[in-house]
What does this fold into?
Amino acid sequence: MSATASEEELSEDELAGLELIRETGGIHQSNFWKELDVSSRKGSRIVDSLSEKGLINRDETIYEGHNTYYLTPTAQDLDFSLLMAGDMLSPFVGDEEIDAHSDAFSQWVMNLAYEE
It folds into this structure.
């Protein structure tokens, strides 16, 4: 299956697992299956499937002295809309410091006002 699998193709258990990972923002696999109330074997199968479909990231880690994985949603799940005002990205995104009295910031705030 492709890495851009649609959520409509997921099983009920996979959808529940994906929702849990999204809601928590990240969870250790050792807690994942307990939270879903499934066996560790079934939890591993769900994680494998979601990872293969490109819906989650799975990074090796040590948690409470045991090797496990830390599961996070992929970047496609991140919502950047809060950084936008119309078609303008917040001037505070970036490395340089922005003066709150600058024209760039004023324009961004004015675009926020126009959206309401």
The longest strand covers residues 56-63. The two ends are 42 Å apart (CA to CA). The domain at 7-76 is CATH 1.10.10.10 (Arc Repressor Mutant, subunit A). Residues 12-24 form the longest helix (13 residues).
